[in-house]
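INFO batch 0412 | record 1 of 1 | parsing
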Amino acid sequence: MKARLFAFCALLSLSAPAFAVQPDEILPDAKLEQRARTISADLRCLVCQNQSIDDSDASLAKDLRLLVRERLKAGDSDPQVKDFLVARYGNFILLKPPFEWDTLLLWLSPFAILGLGAAAMFAARRKGEDKPAAPLSEEESARLKSLLGQSPDEGQA
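INFO prediction complete | emitting tokens
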């Protein structure tokens, strides 16, 4: 029982997010480091694309983490750091890009796909309703009556 519990805990620890921030990157000022982590969590790794730069082991992500920390040490506010990176890399660097004209397709495409799927299901359902059921042949009718325990002449009136 203890072995199973240990194995479960080991597997659970593997599922936790792995922070790629190296000890040499961490700022001595705890408040600045917390701000850097908050900003980094919202920035996309340009190599991995589905990870934040805080979670990525890519060398570009490390460079971006260092850049964020340099900007914070220089006295930039959190929005100034993000604005600097957006000006350099575009809205793609943000894990949650703003709703703007150039990101309109990104934001609306899930709804468009959902609408197309609903329309396809509606059309398929209507197509099935238009066809009347084909009548049973005499052979099929006799077989059905025998399965139901009726004589072949009972159902006719």
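INFO post-check: Residues 25 and 71 are 13 Å apart (CA to CA).
INFO record closed
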